[in-house]
């Protein structure tokens, strides 16, 4: 019998009847959505920058206090379009502690990722290590804002300005967050958000590109549709990355409820924090660098020596009870199949990839669910001490 099996055999609780996912899965009231869909069918206008997409872009522009908010089919396309619009060449520096799509978006554009380690005491790019990576063929920095937090935006903008480089952000997880009182969305040259089902603001699937640069906005809008070469800005490539009216309908309704979703996430976060702070070896990752978080994610770090079992053992125990926790981001992007050959040594990223665990938060995670998940984690710690003595 393995250690995981031994611990599970000693735990008194039963699995959840339905799996508990990590993602948000906030969705509007069906009656409101049905009314929106009826309007779409009556207008017979389903795509191609329709009235709902136009309305959504206007509301998002005002919400984020940016000049241009441009909806696309998903955030990965958003990153690709942003790189193309900025006419990036050569290499782009980014952290390896991120979702693999951040780096893959560069490969699709013929660019080469250069990976930077994250801070020893955090999850965002270490700005003190950036300048050593800047060479003549590096054209941009792509920073990533994680877990409802933000990187050191001031330091990043200073470095990019000093070296005459483009700076853009994968802000997939940062919608609604504030940095020094300003909404994330208007920093650097471009920011890209995800409107995926697992995000606080969801379109079911979708993405959002924000910029305060009029010329870049024109290029992005020309690249977005498949016929963009006929638009007023000359471009070399196009991408069929238009958001549908159905996606926009979901996002518009969810935007009305965003503050409720954010408050619910914060309450869930506080419940977890209160319970898990008492368990040796479990540390909650607080949202970094922001004055207001969306509490997009509930992430903790597992210290195997203090907790009694590894992060992966705890992950498998939670899965036994139908808690679909995730190990984000494992492995670090620098060790995935496309990049492992380059032999990057990023000790802080490697440590996080082996210790970080994401727990459920969002629409399906009420107080009783949180308490039950924390009970499983607490009992796992207690029983692991017993198993080690056998």
UniProtKB/TrEMBL annotation:
Signal peptide from the UniProt entry: none
GO molecular function: pyridoxal phosphate binding; transaminase activity
Residues recorded with modification N6-(pyridoxal phosphate)lysine: 199
Database matches in CDD domains: AHBA_syn
Active site residues according to the UniProt entry: 199
Domain of life per record: Bacteria
Pfam families with a match to the protein in the record: DegT_DnrJ_EryC1
BP GO annotations: polysaccharide biosynthetic process
SUPFAM superfamilies registered for this protein in UniProt: PLP-dependent transferases
Keyword Ribonucleoprotein recorded: no
Keywords, alphabetical: Pyridoxal phosphate
PANTHER family xrefs: PROTEIN RV3402C (PTHR30244:SF9), TRANSAMINASE (PTHR30244)
Family listed: Belongs to the DegT/DnrJ/EryC1 family.
Name this protein carries in UniProt: DegT/DnrJ/EryC1/StrS aminotransferase
Species annotation: Paraglaciecola polaris LMG 21857
Taxon lineage: Bacteria, Pseudomonadati, Pseudomonadota, Gammaproteobacteria, Alteromonadales
């Amino acid at each position: 019998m393995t250690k995981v099996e031994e611990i599970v055999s000693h735990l008194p609780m039963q699995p959840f009847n339905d799996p508990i996912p990590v993602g948000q899965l906030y969705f509007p009231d069906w009656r409101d959505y049905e009314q929106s869909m009826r309007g779409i069918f009556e207008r017979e206008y389903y795509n191609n920058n329709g009235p709902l997409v136009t309305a959504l872009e206007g509301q998002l522009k005002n919400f984020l206090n940016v000049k241009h908010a441009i909806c696309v089919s998903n955030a990965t396309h958003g990153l690709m379009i942003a790189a193309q619009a900025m006419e990036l060449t050569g290499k782009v520096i980014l952290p390896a502690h991120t979702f693999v799509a951040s780096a893959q978006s560069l490969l699709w554009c013929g660019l080469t990722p250069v990976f930077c380690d994250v801070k020893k005491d955090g999850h965002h790019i270490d700005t003190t290590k950036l300048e050593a990576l800047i060479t003549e063929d590096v054209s941009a920095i792509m920073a990533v804002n994680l877990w409802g937090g933000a990187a050191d935006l001031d330091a990043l903008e200073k470095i990019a300005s000093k070296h005459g480089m483009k700076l853009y952000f994968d802000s997939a997880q940062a919608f609604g967050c504030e940095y020094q009182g300003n909404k994330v969305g208007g920093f650097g040259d471009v920011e890209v958000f995800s409107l995926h089902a697992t995000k606080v603001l969801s379109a079911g699937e979708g993405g959002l590109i924000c910029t305060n640069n009029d010329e870049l906005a024109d290029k992005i809008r020309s690249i977005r549709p498949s016929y963009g070469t006929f638009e007023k800005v000359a471009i070399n490539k196009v991408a069929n990355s238009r958001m549908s009216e159905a996606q926009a309908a979901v996002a518009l309704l969810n935007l009305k409820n965003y503050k409720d979703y954010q408050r619910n996430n914060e309450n869930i976060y506080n419940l977890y924090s209160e319970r898990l702070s008492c368990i040796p070896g479990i540390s909650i990752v607080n949202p970094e660098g922001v004055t207001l978080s969306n509490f997009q994610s509930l992430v903790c770090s597992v210290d195997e020596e203090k907790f009694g079992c590894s992060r992966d053992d705890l992950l498998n125990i939670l899965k036994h009870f139908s808690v679909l926790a995730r190990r984000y981001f494992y492995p670090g992007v620098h060790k995935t199949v496309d990049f492992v050959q380059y032999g990057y040594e990023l000790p802080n990223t490697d440590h996080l990839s082996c210790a970080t665990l994401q727990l459920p938060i969002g629409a399906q995670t009420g107080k009783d669910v949180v308490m039950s998940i924390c009970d499983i984690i607490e009992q796992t710690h207690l029983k692991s001490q017993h198993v080690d003595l056998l």
